[in-house]
Backbone:
């Protein structure tokens, strides 16, 4: 056995501006073992929930992550609504679904750009982000913010979207779809993309299950598991199926995300077409959350869990978030074993790491 | 909307058996989390099958924070167990991949193991104070 | 021929106008809903402090005794709670974003 070398990777690495540190134990060019460490940007958000009013906390929950921001506030609000025994009006549920899907598309497009950048395909990176910009504009038009939507609140949503704007968004999303289809085609056939991703970082179906992978990583390994099937918000009333690929390599994960963007575009169109009219929020004057709950949602990166425990006070007693990236660290460490040093950034990116999310 | 979750308190001796039983039934590990309470640590574990989540809680005494590892049953548990180890100072026996307290790089070692004081008051810093 | 699609796209992009703007010179008109900054009109204010209580970040400070109203735009997260809570509707949300700041600025009205 030859001597192994240890190469540090991160927390500042050109390929990904995320504070994760990997100690790569190398035998020549091959990774023997990867030792991850996180914890650079812990923010104490869970403790903050114990000190803040439960209504105000929805705005803090939205700031757990800057990319899946809306889904975090949606999950938090759903949890509180369950503790209070509220039922959100259908219009609010549909609008929440629409925004959650917009947030999924923008996250996946961001990821496509970053992964193209990671395997050195600059022009594809620029074109992905150009399409993302169209979507971010739509988010701004409907909510008023580009990153922080700020529209979710306990009991419903804060601001309604008028019919005219919805029509306009419907037109814009079709425009975006045709631009996206072109990019999608390039991602699925281009030789540069294939050479860097096909057969790299294979995660078998058994390993994915045993290691607790979530989200696109799990679905790329052949498990049809998407928490939107729980039917929260309006997902129970829309027509869709989880997207599954079987190869389990980096290319399959890329294809899952591409197909999920098309699916999300379709879901947004369905939401706009079937948008019910009526109230956008329910009032709960004077009620305080009581009891405990575990809420799970599907984020662009996978399953997110919120554990909430309340004792009838105005603050939560305990708030805990398990973000999808944390669950995907175990599969990542497994996939990195035995890969080439040059493939480490690509494999790391295909789990779509959002390390800062981990550090609540 | 109910997400079919159940919460159950179990004894520490049941910990590994419970996981083994769930593993055999085809459950997967969702998460494992610790909380520091005034006189004990509370560890909660969640298993999921067919979108149904079962949550179990165990109480670990503060003076002897020991927890048998589930990593032989669920390989996914090693990240959560390393987190418990780094944040609360748990001794996890039989941990498959032990990062020896280097998984979470915190400034103070085992930061969450201190005394628990409940402070409901919130201190708002005003704009004038800082200007 | 897998390179053909990307080449066609890149050529088309090269021949067309850029997708970006020359920012400080050319500014996009904001959407009607854009949360730009909080504007305040002191003439109708009764100094009830409701906005300061509702503010989640403590960006607004109201002096009940000396009739002052102050906002720190660096702390404001543009949630709009103050706009909703104001009974005299003297707080409004504007589309234009606040200028970038070199240091903390607290705008005081009296």
Residues:
């Amino acid at each position: 056995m030859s001597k192994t070398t240890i190469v540090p990777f991160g927390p500042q690495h050109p390929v990904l501006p995320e504070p994760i540190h990997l100690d790569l134990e190398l035998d020549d060019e091959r990774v023997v073992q990867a030792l991850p460490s996180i914890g650079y940007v812990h923010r104490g958000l869970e403790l903050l929930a114990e000190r803040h009013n439960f209504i105000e906390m929805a705005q803090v929950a939205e700031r757990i992550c800057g990319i899946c921001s809306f889904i975090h506030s949606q999950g938090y609000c759903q949890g509180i609504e369950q503790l209070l025994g509220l039922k959100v009006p259908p219009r609010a549920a549909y609008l929440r679904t629409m925004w959650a899907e917009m947030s999924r598309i923008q996250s996946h497009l961001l990821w496509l750009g970053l992964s193209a950048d990671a395997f050195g395909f600059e022009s594809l990176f620029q074109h992905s982000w150009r399409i993302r910009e169209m979507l971010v504009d739509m988010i701004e038009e409907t909510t008023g913010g580009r990153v922080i939507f700020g529209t979710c609140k306990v009991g419903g949503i804060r601001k309604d979207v008028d019919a005219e704007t919805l029509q306009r968004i419907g037109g814009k999303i079709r425009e975006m779809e045709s631009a996206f289809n072109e990019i999608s085609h390039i991602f699925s056939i281009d030789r540069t993309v294939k050479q860097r991703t096909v057969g790299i970082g294979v995660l078998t179906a058994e390993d994915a299950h045993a290691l607790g992978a979530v989200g696109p990583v799990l679905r790329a390994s052949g498990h049809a598991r998407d928490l939107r099937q729980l039917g929260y918000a309006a997902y129970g009333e829309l027509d869709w199926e989880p997207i599954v690929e079987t190869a389990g390599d980096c290319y399959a994960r890329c294809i899952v995300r591409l197909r999920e963007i098309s699916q999300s575009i379709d879901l947004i169109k369905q939401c706009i077409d079937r948008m019910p009219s009526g109230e956008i929020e329910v009032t709960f004057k004077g009620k305080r959350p009581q009891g405990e709950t575990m809420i799970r949602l599907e984020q662009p990166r996978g399953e997110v869990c919120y554990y909430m425990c309340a004792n009838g006070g105005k603050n939560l007693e305990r708030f805990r978030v398990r973000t999808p990236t944390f669950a995907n660290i175990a599969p990542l460490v497994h996939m990195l074993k035995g890969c080439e040093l040059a493939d480490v950034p690509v494999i790391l990116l295909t789990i779509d790491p959002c390390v800062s999310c981990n550090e609540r | 909307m109910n997400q079919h979750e159940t919460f159950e308190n179990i004894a520490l001796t049941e910990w590994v058996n419970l996981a083994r039983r769930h593993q055999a039934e085809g459950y997967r590990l969702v998460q494992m989390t610790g909380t520091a309470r005034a006189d004990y640590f509370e560890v909660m574990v969640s298993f999921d099958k067919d979108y149904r989540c079962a949550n179990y809680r165990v109480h670990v005494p503060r003076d002897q924070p020991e927890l048998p590892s589930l990593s032989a049953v669920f390989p996914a548990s090693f990240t959560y167990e390393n987190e418990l180890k780094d944040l609360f100072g748990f001794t996890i026996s039989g941990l498959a991949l032990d990062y020896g307290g280097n998984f979470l790089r915190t400034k103070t070692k085992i930061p969450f193991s201190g005394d628990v004081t409940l402070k409901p008051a919130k201190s708002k810093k005003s704009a004038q104070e800082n200007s | 021929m897998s390179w053909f699609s990307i080449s066609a796209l890149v050529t088309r992009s090269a021949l067309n106008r850029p997708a970006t703007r020359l920012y400080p010179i050319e500014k996009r008109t904001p959407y009607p809903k854009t949360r730009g900054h909080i504007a305040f009109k002191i003439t109708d204010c009764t100094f009830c402090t409701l906005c300061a209580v509702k503010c989640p970040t403590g960006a607004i400070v109201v002096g009940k005794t000396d009739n002052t109203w102050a906002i720190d735009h660096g702390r404001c997260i543009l949630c709009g709670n103050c706009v909703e809570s104001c009974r005299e509707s003297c707080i409004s949300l504007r589309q234009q974003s606040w200028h970038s700041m070199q240091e903390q600025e607290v705008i005081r009205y009296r």
